[in-house]
Amino acid sequence: MVDKISSTGAEVVIYGNQWAESDEYLRNFVMKSADSTTLAVYCHPFDNPVIWEGHATMIDEIATQLPDQNSLKGVVCSVGGGGLYNGIVTGLKRNKLSTLPVLAIETEPAACLAASLEAGKVVKLESVNTIAKSLAAQFVSEQAFVFANGGHPTKSLVISDAQAVNSTVKFAEDHGITVEPACGAALAVVYENLWDKYLPNLTKSDCVVIIVCGGSATSLDDLIMLRNSL
Amino acid sequence: MTIKSDMEGRWLRKPYIQTPLIPSLYLSKLAGCRVLMKMETCQSSGSFKSRGLGYLVQQTLLHTSPNPGQELHFFSSSGGNAGYATAVACQQYRQKCTVCVPLRTSSRMVDRIRMTGATVISHGQTIGEADKYLHTVLMTQCDTKVEIPIYCHPYNNPIVWKGNSTLASEIIDQTDHEKEKVPSLIICSVGGGGLYNGLVSGFLGAGGHRKKEWKEVPILAVETTGCATLYKSLKAQSLITQQADDYTIALSLATPDITPETLEYANGLYPTHSIIVEDRDAANACIRFAEDHKVLVEPACGTALAAIYQERLKEIVPKLTPDDTVVVVVCGGSAVDCQTLQEYRNNYFEV
């Protein structure tokens, strides 16, 4: 992953045991070390409305690509810090789809949205040791909590790491694409037959969109290892 | 809406999608120019064959008038992606489909085709034998009072080439829309020549203010040494067929011959370069592509990618600069999984 990022020409600095530590180091040290001719621009990985506007383009595209919008009954996505989820809700609102439910999937060790909804406020998890590393945020963005807590029809679903892995392996089998377990989490709704409980009474002509969010961190060796672990 | 008009509305929907034409950081670095990938892996059947075979099914449907009580029954004798693409199109248009595959076809592929609702029959050691069985037994069994049998050759049909030509039209539209340079080269794999024929006719049919450039954009036709029928035909200046002991891991390219039109185009009617790569190079390209782009492709597809991963472009276009663009058709194909790639690593590259 480090090589992938370096290959773009970006400078990669490795620091800290988890994201919060690297983030603090970046803001308090690396950015402050930039010389006076440099305008340092901080890019939070998910907690910025401008990012959600960008992610919302996914819904703009879905709205034009679906032959029959009336058949659309729900959108399914993985939740880490909630950036993708916020983008989807933003996109649904601006495409006159404010009543379309979103299934927000987290893995059990990093289920900060579910914990927040349970507590009635944004809570911080002490540890987020999930195989779905790209979902390992200790807390969701405030806006994600607001949307999920009544701002937009949302169902919060928590699955196990094993279910995310199983879906990742099956998706590679079915579609020839290697995604990360973070992405497999959303696919688990189908592969683990969970949708019936959360989107009941679907018929053959109904349509559900699953966001195959992608991710670059799963190598061929990782995929083979995940497959063998099942 | 009546049932009839609802059905006809469905028949008008295309059997293929417009696929992404996206830059690859990795391939661009290797090639020393901007490499764009045309991602046919995104088609619903997993390969570009949805264009040609899908178009064949759709056009047959729109232009055939069965008698009352009669339905169309589509027949395909491919062992893989063409049969699957035909079956997927038939599922989309709710048509009957039978695919006859050689016995060596993997159960994985047979299951995949069956999932569409098509009937799959296994017969014969080769595609040729499966094809003969299809014609002499399966199609003749049709009761023509209730069924019109329609034969779908995997590549040797101008309607299939017309469907495939949409690949070229999209490349033109996508490039013109983004105001990008006309590419210096288009890279594609060659089996029977269906994809190549489609690309040529698509570029020759270019419109717009840059049509003169588009009508001359060179194609690099890549084959493996184990099925180099175009390469050998060009050298011999006549159609050469595959020999009995020729073998390649790029099974989806292993057709007995190329179409006569393929040789005519490549032999002077259209700017074409023909190269061959080893099976090992095609396998390596599949492994590297899986690492770089997280997409698993068959060796038939890896064959085209091998032209870049083996750094062969300089021998074709010596003066490629970082400002130039090359498009590689990532043709797709379903006959691969991570276990296959692991086997290739073990067979070819483990010390």
TrEMBL record, chain A:
The keyword Metal-binding does not apply. The keyword Amino-acid biosynthesis does not apply. It is an enzyme of class 4 (lyase). Signal peptide: none annotated. Its cofactor is pyridoxal 5'-phosphate. One of its GO terms (biological process) is L-serine catabolic process. GO terms for molecular function: L-serine ammonia-lyase activity; threonine deaminase activity. InterPro entries: Ser/Thr_Dehydratase (IPR050147), TrpB-like_PALP (IPR001926), TrpB-like_PALP_sf (IPR036052). It holds the Pfam family PALP. Keywords: Lyase, Pyridoxal phosphate. Residues 2-214 form the Tryptophan synthase beta chain-like PALP domain. Belongs to the serine/threonine dehydratase family. This is L-serine ammonia-lyase. It comes from Nadsonia fulvescens var. elongata DSM 6958.
TrEMBL record, chain B:
InterPro entries: Ser/Thr_Dehydratase (IPR050147), Ser/Thr_deHydtase_PyrdxlP-BS (IPR000634), TrpB-like_PALP (IPR001926), TrpB-like_PALP_sf (IPR036052). Its cofactor is pyridoxal 5'-phosphate. It is found in: Cytoplasm. It holds the Pfam family PALP. Its EC number is 4.3.1.17. One of its GO terms (molecular function) is pyridoxal phosphate binding. One of its GO terms (cellular component) is cytoplasm. Coiled coil: none annotated. Residues 15-332 form the Tryptophan synthase beta chain-like PALP domain. One of its GO terms (biological process) is isoleucine biosynthetic process. It is an enzyme of class 4 (lyase). Keywords: Cytoplasm, Gluconeogenesis, Lyase, Pyridoxal phosphate. It catalyses: L-serine = pyruvate + NH4(+). Pathway: Carbohydrate biosynthesis; gluconeogenesis. Belongs to the serine/threonine dehydratase family. This is L-serine ammonia-lyase. The lineage of its organism: Eukaryota, Fungi, Dikarya, Ascomycota, Saccharomycotina.
